[in-house]
Batch of 2 targets.
Target 1
Amino acid sequence: MLAYRLTHPSEGKEASVVLLHAFPFSSFMWLRERKELSEHAAILAPDLPGFGASDRLKKPSITGMAEAVADLLDSLEIEEPVVMGGLSMGGYVALEFYRHFPDRVRGLMLFSTCAAADTAAAKEKRLRAIEEIEKGGVEEFSQKNVNKMVGKTTLETRPDIVEKALTMMLDNQPEGLTDALRAMADRRDNSDLLNFITCPTLIVAGEEDTIIAPAEAESMHKKIRDSRFYRMPKTGHLLNLERPDIFGTMVENFLGTGIHCHSISV
Ligand code: MLT
């Protein structure tokens, strides 16, 4: 079973929200959201396979990650549909979860993510990253990539956020990273799914994201019927770490409008 962090709502508040982390992070990246959103909802933040305290999958895949999230909901006896949110790799898993278990999803939140599969060039890049991690380890990989995770504005003005991201990136096992890189390289194209998504969907992208272009998010918005789209100014890939206040407000607004959630009672 996946390791997880669960924050219960204040008395009288009903909702259940699952937050899936990005690569290469863990449920720890949702620390602030777990605290602040628990005013409105029970927040379940799993460590995806190979990250945090979760075991690796025997055969790493994004589908396997989505199934592991479903298994976690089963073992926590969460039967009511949830609001499924994910940032970047977490978004790939959220879409895959919707493909397999649409009845278990009451709302979707897609942050800094896209529905398309990797291009040949992107797959090639991941294979090179795997070689780098196998040769140089987590530290070298993290030092080399941390600056790309945030936007230009954060990089220039908020070294503390870059440092925080780096600390989280360093807290990984090399095998967890290489498994996830293989899983992302092999993931399916979920673009065909978008027209069939019927639940309310929040889509947010950072204007300065150089990992996944905001245009990808906008194109998902055009295809998902009941979706709203926000482009966050002066923000890169790590929306919630770079702009916690605006991010929190967007999610709170979304949860407060039309998403009727049920409580998690574990
Ligand atoms: C992430 O933030 O999860 C990754 O950058 C996603 C990716 O590499 O496609």
Target 2
Amino acid sequence: MRRDRDRYDVWWRDAVVYQVYPRSFADSDGDGIGDLGGLLEHIDHLDHLGVDVVWLSPIYPSPQDDNGYDVADYRDVDPVFGSLATLDAVTEELHRRDMRLVLDLVVNHTSDEHPWFIDSASGPDSPRRDWYWWRPPRPGFTGGEPGAEPTNWAGFFSGSTWEFDPASGEYYLHLFSRKQPDLNWENPEVRHAVYDTMRWWLDQGVDGFRMDVINLISKRTDLPDAPLAPGARHGDGFPFYASGPRIHEFLQEMNREVFRGWDVPVLSIGEMPGVTIDDAADFTDPARGELDMVFQFEHMGVDHGPDGKWSGAELDRGHLMSTLVRWQEGLAERGWNSLYWNNHDQPRVVSRFGDPERFWRESATALAAVLHLQRGTPFIYQGEEIGMTDMPFTSVDELRDIESLNFVAETLADDADALPRVMERIRRIGRDNARTPVQWDAGPAAGFTTGQPWIAVNPNHVSINAAAQRDDPASVYSFYRELIALRHREPLVVTGDFRALDSNAPIVAFVRSDGTEELVLRANLSSEPAASADPGGELVLGNHAEPSRGDMLRPWEVVVTRRPVGELIPR
Ligand code: ISL
């Protein structure tokens, strides 16, 4: 059942978003790289699944240093993915089927091959010099030598955030790869060039934007050094370049300049590493006119160690759930949550938080229900709906992601014996886990391409694939379909208040209520049976053919019931 778009105050309130990472989705021309033609061929899959919005990761012309998150032209399509005409066909087909299209907007930085940067780098007198962050070497240095960088910040992709340009004797800032120079949003010409581009896409029929690292566009202009750990070359400059003094002003300006006045309200989703609950409430408070929702990262950090993602920590599912519960509570009165387990930067949820060996189907479905029945807009990342798992990468040759490859190079430069440890961490947390091709069927290359795939296909595609699951009512896919349909028909899932009953691992239990009726979800996030008081009520959803009634839940079992408000739940 499609939803009724006019039921809520804004069209996206009861929507489910599906992320397509085009490179890995489906290849239509046999070059081994997914493309828009492949997306067109598989729109039926998205329609059948029942999602409402497609978020398309970058399709713009790009040297592909960071798989398209390095944009060389904001108003065209990379030939590897198709053309503006193919994109039009995608938009049209989605609209025909009552789905909407959100593009990825990557404007914290451009590619170093973008004409703006080429112009800026042509010399200190370029009219666009100030469009990027150029700075002289540290006093006492000539530039290019270790320690001469204007600040000591560590980049997201290892090394320094500064690249020396011998021609001008200055450095430019790049928080990500050296091929991703940061735009200077202090300059109003930059901001208006971005707003023009956004309006141009909306004129083409696009329905909204997912905005890459949008909280990094306002930085402190004095660029202070970060505190340094003993022996470290680089420190964490995050507090100085994230959510800077003008972030709200810039987003309000963008909102005024771009989002107002369209027939269909534009959907705006800000990706915001490090965002706090209080900030997120401000960013997404409709009264402030900034964004509709933000991606927060707290629950993605629960298995990161003290030194970030490359240092591991023991997974504590209680901590995972209490983090999500805090976000539910924090954005209850003001703002709106986005809900996600996966995207193109994160390992696969069933491998990360579930039990892919012993309870693959049960853990994939329990985790799905726990996420989708929270308050907010759920996002499904391609392949999540069929329970795709992490890839058993064994060698560096199989890796494609610049973040992982830079991490390997940097670590091995210090310690030549570190490879086994590095590979172990990459297998667990590396971004390539999300980027192996979508497993369409059990055939060669999983039906992704007739050519040689750009990154290896997971060997488990012979058993985990879309063809095998589509018509199986007990499949992970059918469970996702059911969750989406439930959101579309059940206002409690969309607007019901959220109240946590239990987030003591391994049990998570919460209630969604409108004051009269409530949905009660109970899930066992472990591979052993666990006790959880049965609240009674009519059965709404379960991930077993015969859902448990009573106070015990099977491993990775989830049960949802509906009951009148006010009955005491036995403890
Ligand atoms: O992937 C991460 C951790 O491994 C994050 O730190 C990620 O780099 C951060 O969330 C920003 O991500 C976004 O911008 C990057 C791009 O590489 C990512 O793919 C994108 O989602 C730079 O554009």
